[in-house]
């Protein structure tokens, strides 16, 4: 149901065991509802219950209960949440109003513990908060995929460059072979002419000539086989030399690899496991501390340290500065011992718990960083071991190939010896068949046979070169297509990166515009401007440094003389930091148009703002959500319009 359809419908909420509430039912109408009362009246607990019904998990279960429930009815529609404590952890379930409460938690549910308000008070980088509701993961995935594709194209283009460099040498080799083939053909033609002349000069019978010719043909074929065997022997010997060289290089690489100390991998595994157990233990401790702090904050009903610390300083001031907007001191009943104690004593204890929580969080981060380093060390160790294994496997294959070549060489040597013996036998037969007139003819046949063999070898080499040139030219034809693809990929990359920069810039501009609006509404004399700047910084991610955008918050202040100067959050008073955080969170509500998707806006812990300014804020934001629920002390509530709905009993 849309927010418009919910207009003019009452809200009814039933709560059990949430915060400091045992059980209650509260009903309110559309518009502004003021939860008014003193401290420890469960106003913040009721706001948490509303958050739970809307979908938030930032809700605490009552300290003495293991189960809690919220039932939120808006008009005819009902939304439910259950809370269950198991092993010190509170789990939520049910069917809330929102499927994803991320943006609402940040900018619509503005309690004291609101992450946006706290981030400003701690001077955290605001980029994550501002960009979290904006889905840029899809764009970043596309960028990563395009970068991978660009690297592939660059590799292919580099390969084409190498082939292009090889082409001139191949073409020169082809020309040399053409010249050698032409020379060899001329020599063969000349030798055949000499052979024809010698044949005509020989006076012999047809039978004698035929027998001699057959023997000479057999001699020619045998010589050709012998040349082939010699060529194969040369080829295998070259392969053996190449394998010996490769083996020497691989053995050198293997020797350069550092030895892995025995047990180092298991020691790393054990240390990683220990740190993970430590991380889990710290996270459990952090969760328990969070529950304790949240419970005690709920019991104090959201009153902040800044307010309590200044309760003894007198009555509320005017508009001179934010730090002057505080009220008188009071006592509360301790919920652990039952005695009346000063609220600032409880707040001091809470401060110590918060400090312990922050220290524990720091310990968790330290453990995670150490874990990342150890996992990286283990990965590096695994990579070296894998490299060592690869080298060993390749060395084993080389040994096998060398054995194969040696076996083949032995066979070829035996075949060469046999062919040599056969040639000697054939030459003896020829000598027996020929007379002195055939001696010259035999020599010519031998020379012609040798020329034919050499010519065939040259023509075979040329054919191989021609095929290789054709393959390269075919590959080079792909260059234009690959370069066009790379240009397209680069253009897409630049467009996507520009899109993220544009999204971040627009988000920052939106926050700056709306913070200016809220600040004008509050009209503080000593705070001139609050604005966010998007800057690029080099940050550390694990073991490497990367450039990332960071959103820095700036505060421009004015002196009593009217001089403006820039200050940092760290230099502001605690109440001024609270106001700055509130301004940032309220701007986020306006930037993301949350009134269009979230029917309820919640405001709490406004003690750093004086009652007149609270009234202006409420009047301004009353125009946006269907339901604006604000928790105020009676003095602050008195400044609001009497027509606003008021709830005094929870």
TrEMBL record:
<feature type="region of interest" description="Disordered">
    <location>
        <begin position="301"/>
        <end position="323"/>
    </location>
</feature>
<keyword id="KW-0175">Coiled coil</keyword>
<feature type="domain" description="Rad50/SbcC-type AAA">
    <location>
        <begin position="13"/>
        <end position="227"/>
    </location>
</feature>
<feature type="coiled-coil region">
    <location>
        <begin position="350"/>
        <end position="513"/>
    </location>
</feature>
<feature type="region of interest" description="Disordered">
    <location>
        <begin position="188"/>
        <end position="213"/>
    </location>
</feature>
<dbReference type="GO" id="GO:0006302">
    <property type="term" value="P:double-strand break repair"/>
</dbReference>
<protein>
    <submittedName>
        <fullName>Chromosome segregation protein</fullName>
    </submittedName>
</protein>
<dbReference type="InterPro" id="IPR038729">
    <property type="entry name" value="Rad50/SbcC_AAA"/>
</dbReference>
<feature type="compositionally biased region" description="Acidic residues">
    <location>
        <begin position="194"/>
        <end position="213"/>
    </location>
</feature>
<dbReference type="Pfam" id="PF13476">
    <property type="entry name" value="AAA_23"/>
</dbReference>
<dbReference type="InterPro" id="IPR027417">
    <property type="entry name" value="P-loop_NTPase"/>
</dbReference>
<comment type="similarity">
    <text>Belongs to the Sph1/Sph2 family.</text>
</comment>
<dbReference type="GO" id="GO:0016887">
    <property type="term" value="F:ATP hydrolysis activity"/>
</dbReference>
């Amino acid at each position: 149901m849309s927010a418009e359809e919910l207009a003019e419908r009452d809200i009814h909420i039933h709560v059990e065991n949430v915060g400091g509430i045992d059980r209650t039912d509260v009903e309110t109408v559309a518009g502004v509802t003021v939860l008014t009362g003193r401290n420890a009246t469960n106003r913040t607990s009721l706001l948490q219950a509303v958050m739970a019904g809307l979908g938030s998990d930032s809700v605490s279960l009552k300290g003495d209960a293991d189960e809690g429930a919220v039932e939120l009815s808006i008009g005819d529609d009902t939304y439910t949440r259950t809370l269950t404590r198991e092993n010190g952890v509170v789990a939520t379930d049910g069917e809330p109003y929102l499927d994803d409460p991320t943006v609402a938690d940040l900018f619509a549910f503005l309690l004291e513990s609101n992450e946006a308000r706290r981030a400003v008070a701690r001077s955290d980088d605001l980029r994550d908060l501002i960009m979290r509701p904006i889905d840029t993961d899809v764009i970043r995935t596309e960028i990563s995929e395009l970068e991978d594709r660009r690297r592939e194209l660059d590799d292919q283009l580099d390969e084409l460059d190498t082939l292009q460099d090889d082409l001139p040498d191949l073409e020169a080799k082809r020309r040399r072979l053409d010249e050698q083939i032409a020379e060899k053909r001329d020599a063969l033609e000349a030798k055949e002419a000499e052979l024809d002349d010698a044949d005509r000069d020989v006076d012999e019978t047809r039978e004698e000539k035929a027998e001699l010719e057959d023997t000479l043909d057999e001699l020619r074929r045998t010589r050709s086989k012998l040349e082939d065997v010699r060529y194969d022997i040369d080829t295998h010997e070259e392969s053996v030399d190449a394998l010996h060289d490769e083996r020497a290089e691989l053995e050198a690489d293997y020797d350069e690899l550092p030895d892995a100390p025995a047990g180092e991998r298991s020691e790393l595994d054990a240390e990683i496991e220990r740190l993970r157990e430590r991380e889990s233990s710290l996270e459990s401790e952090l969760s328990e501390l969070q529950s304790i702090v949240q419970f005690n904050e709920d019991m104090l009903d959201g009153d902040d340290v800044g307010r309590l610390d200044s309760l003894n300083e007198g009555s509320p001031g005017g508009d001179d500065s934010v730090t002057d907007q505080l009220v008188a001191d009071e006592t509360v009943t301790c919920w652990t011992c039952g005695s009346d104690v000063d609220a600032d004593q409880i707040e001091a204890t809470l401060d110590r718990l918060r400090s312990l929580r922050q220290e524990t969080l720091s310990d968790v981060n330290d453990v995670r960083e150490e874990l990342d380093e150890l996992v990286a060390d283990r990965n590096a160790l695994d990579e070296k071991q894998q490299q060592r294994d690869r080298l060993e496997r390749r060395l084993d294959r080389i040994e096998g190939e060398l054995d194969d070549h040696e076996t083949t060489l032995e066979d070829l040597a035996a075949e060469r010896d046999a062919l040599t013996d056969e040639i000697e036998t054939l030459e003896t037969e020829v000598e027996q068949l020929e007379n002195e007139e055939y001696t010259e003819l035999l020599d010519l046949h031998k020379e012609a046979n040798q020329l034919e063999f050499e010519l065939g070898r040259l023509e075979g080499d040329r054919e191989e070169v021609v095929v290789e040139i054709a393959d390269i030219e075919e590959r080079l034809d792909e260059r234009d297509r690959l370069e066009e693809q790379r240009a397209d990929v680069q253009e897409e990359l630049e467009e996507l990166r520009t899109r993220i920069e544009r999204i971040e810039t627009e988000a920052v501009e939106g926050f700056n515009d709306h913070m200016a609006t809220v600040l004008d509404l509050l009209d503080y004399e000593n705070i001139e401007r609050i604005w966010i700047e998007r800057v690029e910084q080099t940050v550390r991610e694990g073991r490497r440094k990367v450039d990332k955008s960071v959103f820095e918050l700036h505060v421009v202040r004015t002196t009593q003389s009217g001089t403006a100067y820039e200050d940092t959050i760290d230099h502001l008073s605690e109440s001024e930091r609270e106001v700055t955080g509130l301004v940032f969170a309220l701007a986020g509500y306006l930037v993301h148009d949350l009134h269009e998707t979230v029917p309820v806006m919640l405001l709490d812990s406004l003690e750093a703002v004086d009652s007149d300014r609270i009234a202006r804020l409420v009047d301004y934001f009353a125009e946006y959500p269907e339901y604006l629920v604000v928790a105020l002390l009676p003095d602050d509530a008195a400044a609001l319009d009497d027509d606003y709905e008021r709830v005094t009993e929870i």
